[in-house]
Design goal:
Elements (H helix, E strand, L loop, with lengths): L1 E5 L4 H17 L4 E7 L3 H4 L7 E5 L1 H6 L3 H15 L2 E7 L4 H8 L2 E7 L15 E3 L7 H13 L29 E4 L11 H10 L6 E3 L4 H10 L7 E2 L6 H9 L3 E5 L2 H8 L4 E5 L4 H4 L6 E5 L22 H5 L2 H11 L3
Parallel strand pairs: 1-2, 1-4, 2-3, 4-5, 5-6, 7-8, 7-10, 8-9, 10-11, 11-12
Helix pairs in contact: 1-6, 1-10, 7-8, 7-13
């Protein structure tokens, strides 16, 4: 059986797809799974041992720089994949662009039905459509979509939920014996917890292990230096770590704390103890899962708004729900879960 999975991005979404792949390989170990994914996330998509082949599309790169080389790269890749025949093509993204890509391929095109999908027009590209409640976690939704498509729904509850092992990564040479990791940065302004709250947490929490702050952009590095009091409260990495390097640090950490961002979800996939701080997005749908994890959020009447700007703030830089989620709440949660 040959299956093409279409799940283009983002980083957290990639990790939320892992459990469905584990399910698939548990039921059909001989199935061949190929993944059509944005090139930016091709490396992490390939980490799951159940993935047999990656087809990386430079869609995000093209959005930033619409040049002929990238357009030809996309056309050539789609042409190669189009030559193959799949038993099932599963669109786990549920957007018009991902559904359009399924339409280019040969095989039975499957996805969410109009009640279960974000962009309803996408359903026009599918040949089989399945009802999967929107009120569930993204992990559960994708697992159910796979199960309904491939007819193993009755076995769903007994199947594994993760596909990564900590032992797959070597401990970094610079890492101490015990340490914690903090990820305060993400692309959405409204997902940011205020720097003053991070500083208070670092000053007053009772952690007794070294702390390291991860960052991905120059502005995130600058913010990390500010919240850590220029590296006095926690160590800020000197340079930007790539996916593989950061995964090695996460795999051997004692715990991870961060906002709703990709590396927090990677830690959860590795079953590292983790706390995720939520603002405009909902832990019910994209939160960290398992006994070793906690989600914290300030549930105002507008929660979850899923907006990139705060509609009730007095100024454009303020995010009310994040302001109201106090350092004491994080300190209490972390003390209960893992800070000794």
């Amino acid at each position: 059986m040959r299956i093409l999975l279409v799940k283009l991005s983002s980083m957290g979404d990639i990790f939320h797809t892992y459990p469905a792949i584990s399910d698939l390989k548990s039921v059909y170990p001989g199935a061949r799974l190929e993944w059509l994914v944005d090139r930016q996330f091709a490396e992490i998509a390939a980490w799951h041992p159940g993935v047999d082949e990656i087809h990386p599309l430079p869609l995000r790169a093209l959005k930033k720089n619409r040049n002929l080389v990238l357009k030809k790269s996309i056309s050539d890749l789609l042409g190669r994949v189009r030559m193959r025949h799949y038993d099932f093509i599963i669109d786990a993204q549920g957007l018009i662009k991902s559904a359009w890509l399924t339409r280019q391929m040969k095989g039975l095109r499957c996805g969410y039905n109009h009640r279960s999908i974000r962009e309803k027009l996408a359903t026009l590209f599918y040949q089989k459509r399945f009802s999967v409640s929107k009120e569930q976690h993204a992990i559960t939704r994708i697992r159910q979509l796979f199960a309904k498509t491939l007819s193993y729904e009755d076995s769903l509850e007994s199947l594994p939920e993760q596909g990564l092992k900590q032992s797959d990564w070597q401990k970094p040479a610079a890492a101490p014996e015990h340490y914690g990791l903090i990820f305060p940065g993400t692309t959405w302004l409204t997902k940011h917890w205020p720097l003053k709250h991070w500083r208070t947490f670092l000053q007053t929490s009772k952690h007794q292990i070294p702390l390291f702050i991860g960052w991905g952009t120059e502005s995130e590095q600058k913010n990390a230096m500010e919240m850590s009091d220029q590296g006095q409260l926690a160590t800020v990495f000197d340079f930007r770590l790539d996916f593989e390097e950061m995964a090695s640090w996460i795999a051997h950490s004692d715990w991870v704390i961060g906002v709703d961002t990709g590396f927090v979800h990677l830690a959860n996939a590795m079953q590292i103890p983790v706390i995720a701080i939520f603002g405009p997005t909902s832990p019910q749908h994209t939160g960290v899962t398992g006994d070793k994890s906690r989600n914290i959020a300030m549930r105002l009447p507008c929660f979850p708004c899923r907006r990139k700007t705060c509609k009730i703030a007095m100024n454009k830089d303020q995010v009310v729900c994040m302001e109201k989620l106090t350092p004491d709440q994080l300190i209490s949660c972390s003390s209960e879960l893992f800070i000794k």
